[in-house]
Amino acid sequence: MSARDTAELEVKRESTPGSPTPSRRNSHWAGYLHLLGARLKELRREPEVIFWIFAFPILLALGLGIAFRNKPADVSRVAVVAGDSAARTAEMLKAGFHTEILPRDAALQGFRLGKFDLVVTPQADGSMQYEYDPARPESVLAKAQVNDAIQSGSGRKDMVQTSSHVSSEPGARYIDFLIPGLLGMNLMGSGMWGIGFALVEMRQRKLLKRFLATPMRRADFLMAMGSSRMVLMIIELVLLLSFGVLAFKMRVLGSWISIFLISALGALTFAALGLLAASRANKIETANGIINIIMLPMWIFSGCFFSYERFPAIIQPVIRLLPLTALNDALRSTILEGGSLAAQGSRLLVLCAWGGISFILALKWFRWS
Fold first, then answer.
1. Is the pLDDT of residue 349 over 90?
2. d(CA 160, CA 149)
3. CA end-to-end distance (rounded Å), the chain
4. How much is the pTM?
5. Band of pLDDT at residue 140, cut at 50, 70 and 90
6. Which residue has the higher pLDDT, 76 or 73?
7. Contact (CB, 8 A) for 347 and 323
8. Contacts of 310 (CB under 8 A, 6+ apart)
């Protein structure tokens, strides 16, 4: 029998009722898996992804870690107004302060321009007048320290003996606070920018219309776009935390599995938000504006670079409901305090709510053209 006859026989066998089902058959998730593989291959053609997702957070952590590293406290700069007692006053302050004797106008001008933290004016009756700015913490500190030095130099005796112990352990430094915040911020940025821009670009190039002509479910397409960030999330997580451990001796007290699961949920949440932001946008500029509107409040309020507890207490419950706040709090609790996954229940619930609602709305509002 020839090869042609064999092929015709196979076709007849498949078309005959009751014949055996072909061995090769697409599974229910075949479309999703093919789309996910295609999306991961596309990422290799985007070299800027390597910098913005992997290199940029490390460079940012390095720069801020160096800027806010443990170092000796700044020495207060004090201007002493020239007069009869100026030299004696400067002598009492020379041990712990940078002092300079100047005419009053020059001293006040230097204080206004930030050259000095405090201006001290010795009075004729032996008292001291301090010029300080209560809105500047360094000025308030300089006033307290200078007054203490002058009182001690004038013969004041401390009634209570005290002792001090310097404590600067890993976990209490700024870099320890910063690394989890950078991880959360990067998961948000890579999820929303990576998904949002990719969708809009495909819509502009008319690629989505081609997908519309295929027997592919909309949910498969959106799920593939969102879950493609998971591979990048693993690399981001390992790189950033490893950099913190190796470069700054950061301590990771919690379980790496818990950290991975929290990060994965965060990546999926922001991928869903990215899908929602780009579900109808036809232009990069439009998607850019929508994504910025979503991300900007979280950059400010969610505690990436400083604690959100600095904001008024009345708005803090609202801040805690933001997805990036929940992610940052869960990461810091796990990494710095060794908190368990179960202890992050309310924060994970916030992430699930944002991610689930965003994906449902994206699925409903998404359009191919």
1. yes
2. 16
3. 51
4. 0.68
5. confident
6. 76
7. no
8. none
Indicate the domain borders of the chain. Answer: 77-152, 170-365
Residues 53 and 186: beta-carbon distance below 8 Å? yes
Strand bridging mode 77-81 / 98-102: parallel
> Which amino acid does the sequence have at 162?
T
Cβ contact 343:323 at 8 Å:
no
Mapped onto helix, strand or coil, the DSSP state of residue 98 is strand
Across the range 232-251, mean pLDDT stands at: 85
Contact by Cβ (8 Å): 26, 34: no
Distance separating alpha carbons of residues 47 and 28, to the nearest angstrom: 33
Average pLDDT (303-332) is 92
The pair of structure tokens assigned to 205 is: 């190039």
Q: Is 122 helix (H, G, I), strand (E, B) or coil?
A: strand
Question: Which DSSP state fits 309?
Answer: G
Spatial contact of 117 and 107, defined as CB atoms under 8 Å apart: no
Average pLDDT, stretch 4-20? 45
Local structure of residue 291 (DSSP, 8 states): H
Burial label for 22, CB within 10 Å (0-12, 13-18, 19+), is exposed
Reported in sequence order, the residue ranges of the chain that DSSP labels E, i.e. its strands, are: 77-81, 98-102, 118-122, 128-131
Cβ 113 vs Cβ 77: under 8 Å: no
C-alpha to C-alpha distances, 332 to 106, 284, 346, nearest whole angstrom: 48, 34, 15
Contact 145, 78 (CB under 8 A): no
More confident call, 271 vs 216:
271
- Sequence length of the chain is 369
| The pair of three-digit structure tokens given for residue 63, joined into one six-digit string | 């720069």
Cβ(219)–Cβ(275) under 8 Å?
Answer: no
Q: Are 231 and 268 in contact (CB under 8 A)?
A: no
